[in-house]
Amino acid sequence: MATAPQSTTAVTAPLVLSGARVVLPTGTVSDGQVVVDGTRIAARAPEHARVIDVSGHWLVPGFVDIHNHGGGGASFTSGTVEEVLTGIHTHRLHGTTTLVASTVTGDMDFLAQRAGLLSELAEQGDIAGIHFEGPFISPCRKGAHAEELLRDPDPADVRKLMDAARGQARMFTLATELPGGIDSVRLLAEHGVIAAVGHTDATYEQTVEAIDAGATVATHLFNAMPTLGHRAPGPIAALLQDERVTVELINDGTHLHPAALELAFRHAGADRVAFITDAMDAAGFGDGRYMLGPLEVEVADGVARLVEGGSIAGSTLTLDRAFKRAVTVDGLTVEDAVTALSANPARLLGQSDTIGSLEPGRYADLVLLDDAFDVTGVMRRGAWVVEPRLG
Q1: What digits encode the pLDDT tens for the residues 144-158?
Q2: pLDDT in tens, 182-207
Q3: Is the alpha carbon torsion for 46, 52, 57, 61 positive or negative?
Q4: Residues 64-81: pLDDT tens digits?
């Protein structure tokens, strides 16, 4: 049973974090500072501001996860409100200050009910909205989704879930080649909801059609879609080459070979990559048996697989691990990692004016990292989630 999350420590006076390497959209500032005044980052410090020396550390924007199914032993698809809050808090401890809650395939009435629960959490600011991954996906590329509950993306059904989410639907993953797929993409685009191509068996040409109709995201690129072929390039080529598309990548060392990640970064560029976790209940919790929707999952050595069939079933990733792997294993610059973990997903959510960077006026969402790129402090909206560990 999940436990209730611990409260954050509120900032009661203006604060200056001084001496860190501060990563800004314009580059990294050595011996920089970030001023926190209330819930926001300020341009200058009041005379009475408290100063904390964070020399020898990195200050980066809070991470933004647009594809996350749970954590801390809790599922966003089936957990109680208290359990969902525990999952959210688990990821905050690892630097994710903004999170979109993802559901997995289920009965339509059940998903509509879950949308109602999650929309309340979005309305009070606990999550940044809802991502529906399924049921509108291909049975050929179902991954860890229950095949008997899959259905074609009929725009009427898509609209039902949008309405149930009360304006808090942020993204739908669709197999756009299925009947109704293109019309559903157009519906979503008209309402400002992200249409993501994923769990798809589409051809190259069908994927291009979906992008032209308004699809702008590739759900966990490379996973749950046909492989790249030299005569039948499939969705991967179409999604990588179109500048209108941002590609999700799960950088856990399991979902992607390093060469695949390098290919995506080299071809799409850092400005079109969003690192996600695709996390399930076990993230930040441990190995064992879990349920992902109606399917049983075995997590061993941090890798989640369906008990029946062995398909990878989400991840146990947290975004601090994705960040550290990006700069210490994959050879990305810190600036490119920040772009993929903060700036790009904030842009996709239409919230670049409030999150995703450490510029004045944004929320005081930030992560403090040591030289080994381990988290030593997390702040969300001016309150410490993880008190700085210095020295």
Answers
A1: 899 999 999 999 999
A2: 999 999 999 999 999 999 999 999 99
A3: negative
A4: 999 999 999 999 999 999
Closest listed residue to residue 130, CA positions, set 93, 173, 89: 173
Q: Could you give the 3-state DSSP secondary structure of residue 215?
A: coil
> Which two three-digit tokens encode residue 189?
């685009």
Domains belonging to the chain, first-starting first, are 9-60+355-386 (2.30.40.10), 63-348 (3.20.20.140)
Give strand pairing partners of 276: 250
Q: What are phi and psi of 341, to 5 degrees?
A: -95, -20
Q: Is 278 an active-site residue? A: yes
Of the chain, the end-to-end C-alpha distance in Å amounts to 36
Give me the amino acid identity at 279.
A
- Cβ distance 130 to 169 under 8 Å? yes
The amino acid occupying position 365 is D
Q: Max alpha carbon distance in the chain (Å)?
A: 66
Which residue type is seen at 153?
A: P
Question: Hey, what are 235's tokens?
Answer: 């969705």
Question: Per DSSP, what are the bridge partners of residue 41?
Answer: 36
Catalytic-labelled residue, pool 278, 281, 320, 365: 278
Could you give the C-alpha distances from 150 to 177, 196, 311, in angstroms and in order?
14, 17, 17
Place of tokens 């210095």: 390
Give the per-residue pLDDT at 8.
64
Other CB atoms within a 10 A radius of the CB of residue 37 amount to: 20
Amino acid found at 391: G
Contact 321, 313 (CB under 8 A): no
> Which phi and psi (to 5°) does residue 141 adopt?
-135, 45
d(CA 121, CA 299): 28
264-270 average pLDDT score = 95
